[in-house]
Task: inverse folding
């Protein structure tokens, strides 16, 4: 959604064509991100003509201010929905930065890794908005990601297993 | 207007920006070198927006307030005291990922 999409596209901006094809996963209720992504990919195609990408949508795991109990139910539903998608794409790398949408996708990839179906490297970059505390997605994925990147030194102190590269968006 | 694909035009011609604390809005404004007053939304669940505004304010890049103190802030602001904002470095991230995948 919104801010997350802007941030993740900035993260992608310096990546080489080795990171291709790119499969974007969006929440079904997200109306704005698709345009931003297409615009980004269009510009990219000007430099890298072989550039490939796709867009998939999954049910949104959690609305802002949704209660905890109903969030668990909707997230479980999103995980079930994500498993066939992750199985189909079998990504080498999942890159995410915090919207609720990323939790089911990452957990489904983690599951496929446990089942020895596909080992995906999960890289989580906490949003630049998070200076002192982690988002809920971050708190969960701190334990499931291979690399957990934070953008402010306070978080590096609190979460010693994280990686600190300074501001990267 | 409610939604527009890009505010780049409006930002370019603005002398002062008053915005919510969303990362995109703040960063876009700061990167265009415009003075920014960030207004915090008290109603979002854990109000983490405050963290970024506080940090940007601590580092001297923005002024910040909430809806009720906005008028007061506008009346007493000193925009010349704001520091120029250095952009983030996504190339550091690309470099890090390349190392992870042995692409260097």
Result:
């Amino acid at each position: 959604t919104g801010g997350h999409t802007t941030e993740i596209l900035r993260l992608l901006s310096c990546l080489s064509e080795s990171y291709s094809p790119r499969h974007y996963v969006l929440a079904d209720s997200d109306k704005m991100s698709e345009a931003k992504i297409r615009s980004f990919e269009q510009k990219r195609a000007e430099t890298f003509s072989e550039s490939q990408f796709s867009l998939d949508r999954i049910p949104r795991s959690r609305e802002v201010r949704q209660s905890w109990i109903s969030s668990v139910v909707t997230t479980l539903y999103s995980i079930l929905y994500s498993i066939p998608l992750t199985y189909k794409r079998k990504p080498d790398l999942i890159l995410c930065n915090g919207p609720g949408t990323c939790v089911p996708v990452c957990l489904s990839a983690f599951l496929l890794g446990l089942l020895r179906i596909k080992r995906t490297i999960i890289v989580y970059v906490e949003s630049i908005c998070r200076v002192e505390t982690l988002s809920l997605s971050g708190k969960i994925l701190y334990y499931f990601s291979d690399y957990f990147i934070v953008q402010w030194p306070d978080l590096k102190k609190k979460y010693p297993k994280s990686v600190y590269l300074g501001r990267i968006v | 207007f409610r939604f527009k694909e890009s505010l780049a035009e409006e930002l370019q011609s603005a002398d002062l920006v008053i915005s919510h604390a969303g990362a995109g809005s703040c960063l876009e404004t700061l990167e265009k070198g415009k003075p920014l007053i960030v207004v915090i939304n008290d109603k979002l669940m854990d109000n983490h927006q405050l963290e970024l505004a506080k940090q940007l304010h601590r580092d001297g890049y923005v002024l910040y307030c909430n809806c009720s103190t906005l008028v007061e802030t506008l009346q007493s602001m000193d925009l010349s005291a704001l520091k120029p904002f250095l952009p983030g470095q996504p190339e550091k991230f690309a470099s890090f990922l390349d190392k992870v995948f042995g692409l260097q």
Chain B is about 40% helix and 10% strand. Chain B touches chain A through 29 residues (CB under 8 Å).
